[in-house]
């Protein structure tokens, strides 16, 4: 089983959402970014870290260090379910291929239907193909 699939199944079973995994230093450092409704606490990170440490050992996954963290205020948005969840929020995204000569957009995520994201930028509505989105993040509310 691929590490991402293993962590996804485990975290969902614990009531959390896997946001992102980073493997650095040839897999010796594993960073796991998790979220849940209402946000992540330090106690959540400790609970998840202890559970995943035992899981990785049981699955014979070689690693040196495990870090568990919240995704932060500028949370990455990757899955279609993420885009649906954050409808109405301000997001920043970078396209793989420019639309109307532009690759970077900041606007309000209006909706997602059939793989098309509607983004409102300064009163103008853009229909963007989700397959063209390279990176997307929430814009922090300060």
Which stretches are poorly predicted, pLDDT < 50 over at least 5 residues?
Answer: none
The radius of gyration over CA amounts to: 17 Å
Walk across the major sheet and give the strand order. Answer: 7-6-5-4-8
Q: So how many helices?
A: 3
Query: What's the count of strands?
Result: 8
Q: Give helix and strand order, one letter per element, not per position.
A: HEEHEHEEEEE
Helix content: 10-25%
Shape descriptor reads elongated
Largest sheet: 5 strands, antiparallel
Descriptive overview:
Strand 2, helix 2 and strand 3 form a beta-alpha-beta unit. The protein is α+β, with helices and mostly antiparallel strands. It is 25% helix and 42% strand. The relative contact order is 0.14.
Give the SSE layout:
Blueprint: H1 3-14, E1 17-24, E2 29-35, H2 42-58, E3 65-69, H3 80-85, E4 90-99, E5 102-113, E6 116-121, E7 124-129, E8 133-138
Parallel strand pairs: 2-3
Antiparallel strand pairs: 1-2, 4-5, 4-8, 5-6, 6-7
Features:
142 residues, alpha+beta, 5-stranded antiparallel β-sheet, 3-stranded mixed β-sheet, 3 helices, 8 strands
Short description:
With 142 residues, this protein is an alpha+beta fold.
